[in-house]
Design a protein that fits this description.
The chain is of the alpha/beta class and 473 residues long. The protein is 31% helix and 18% strand. A six-stranded mixed β-sheet has the order 3-4-2-1-5-6. A six-stranded mixed β-sheet has the order 7-10-11-12-9-8, with no helix packed on it. The two termini are 34 Å apart.
């Protein structure tokens, strides 16, 4: 059960917060409604050690310190011993100001460390403090809240209640994320042809539909009716009693190829329709390795940059989280430092820029020209910038926090399109999960926006070896 959604009881619970909870979400202080929060002295020490730098964690730590300073200033220094009311800063909370108190460790707690806990590490100190609070307040429910799985396991071993911090979770289960499309039943037209209207506008066919299934659809979602005469469309607008849908272009046909790339399956066709639509400003694509996320995105970007001249340049960025051991500092400019992280970009550019004929010099000149139109940027230097008429690709977006994702997307100026790519099954950032990832966050928050779209790519198209490895390893 989420601490932030704990049921009301006659005796408020006492939550002992681990340092990583505050590092992850500075507003966690205000997320426990009527319950009290206790911060051990070792947590304050760890916060102090992590406050320097320009990283996201350092910024969060400094924000926590400001929150605590504001609370103490509003309540007075004397309130530290009795508990600082969290309601003195009511601008944070879930709909209402929290009514609990913030308690600090103001004295040494003489409690023997449990047998079997070696040394005096910060985690073990937090466990000892929580156990002493449980004995000091036998009438209260003392619960340790931590993002650290190992600490929660140790707490359970020594007989202490422990929970994860759930308030940062966007969904209860990643399976609840929308796929971005609905498969229609075979009798769809018979059940929805009443009062149906259809018309053509600028070469596009539109339908105005009424019926029971239309209530489940959202703008930006696709509709697919399989069969001998397949029908595919995108939902453009939705009102309380009807929806307007538009038939989509079939990018599986060679005559509609995008920079020589055709869609190999239904989901790739949906993705290309989103990527090539100038009315769609924000696109999210989920999919396992080999489903074609980066290739489709780059092909659409180059086509609109060079052929249609909709954008000035392509900007590609990603979080630099290594899969193995870190290789240390890299020399050179920003783009040279980011180059080792952009192997996916180079691999896909090789596919897109290798003509069937032509000289080696011609191919080299093409590659050099394209790289002058594609800029590789680091996340560290995105804050405060504004990008006009750019095609921005955020790769490996599952490793971003919701706050980082917001920082990136709000950089978009007029005429800019943002595409987020990722696989929430491959998260490398500590303390992020499938349900708390920034990619999950934006997919959920942008659903139903008329200028956004999402699709989950389900079938790998890399090679038969890669497909077999994905299924059997």
């Amino acid at each position: 059960m989420s601490p932030a959604h704990a049921p009301h009881t006659h005796v408020n619970r006492l939550f002992v917060l681990d340092t990583n909870v505050l590092m992850h979400d500075p507003t966690a202080l205000f997320r426990f409604q009527e319950h009290d929060i206790f911060l051990p002295m070792v947590v304050l020490e760890e916060l102090d050690h992590s406050k320097k730098g320009v990283s996201e964690v350092a910024r969060n730590v400094r924000q926590v310190s400001r929150f605590m300073d504001d609370l103490i200033s509003a309540a007075g220094a004397d309130a530290i011993h009795s508990g600082v009311p969290l309601s003195s800063n009511p601008m944070f909370g879930n709909g209402k100001a929290p009514s609990g108190k913030l308690l600090f460790q103001t004295e040494a707690l003489d409690y023997p460390a449990p047998t079997g806990l070696p040394g005096d590490s910060p985690d073990n100190t937090i466990l000892t403090v929580a156990l002493s609070l449980r004995d000091k307040y036998p009438e209260r429910d003392v619960i340790l809240v931590s993002k650290d799985i190992n600490l929660r396991i140790k707490a359970t071993i020594v007989g202490l209640k422990a929970e994860d911090y759930f308030n940062d979770q966007v969904l209860d289960d990643a399976d609840l994320l929308p796929t971005g499309f609905h498969e229609l039943p075979s009798d769809f037209w018979e059940a929805h042809n009443k009062e149906m209207e259809s018309w053509k506008e600028h070469g596009h066919t539109f339908y105005k539909l009424f019926g029971p299934l239309t209530h489940e659809w959202l703008p930006g979602h696709f509709l697919a009716l399989p069969g001998d005469q397949p029908f595919q469309a995108i939902v453009r607008k939705k009102t309380f009693d009807h929806v307007i849908i538009e038939t989509i272009r079939d990018f599986t046909e060679p005559r509609h190829a995008v920079w020589g790339i055709t869609a190999r399956n239904r989901e790739q066709n949906f993705a290309l329709n989103l990527l090539m639509d100038p009315d769609i400003d924000f696109v999210t694509m989920l999919g396992a390795a080999g489903t074609g996320k980066t290739l489709l995105t780059l092909a659409a970007g180059l086509a609109q940059l060079l052929d249609e001249q909709l954008y000035k340049e392509i900007i590609m960025t990603r979080v630099t989280v290594p899969v193995g051991e870190d290789i240390g500092f890299l020399p050179g400019t920003e783009e040279e430092k980011m180059a080792p992280w952009m192997g996916a970009l180079m691999d896909n550019l090789e596919v897109l820029t290798q003509p069937s004929g032509g000289s080696k010099w011609g191919r080299s000149a093409t590659d050099e020209f394209l790289m002058s139109k594609i800029k590789i940027k680091s996340l560290n230097f995105m804050r405060g910038r504004t990008f006009l008429n750019r095609y921005i690709i955020i790769d490996e977006a599952q490793n971003l926090t919701p706050k980082q994702m917001k920082t990136l997307i709000t950089r978009a100026g007029p005429g800019t399109k943002v595409v987020c790519l990722g696989n929430i099954a491959q998260i490398d950032t500590p303390y992020l999960t499938e349900t708390s990832s920034g990619l999950t966050y934006v997919v959920d928050r942008f659903k139903g926006w008329e200028h956004g779209g999402h699709v989950t790519l389900q079938r790998g198209e890399r090679s038969r070896l890669a497909d077999y490895a994905s299924d059997h390893l």
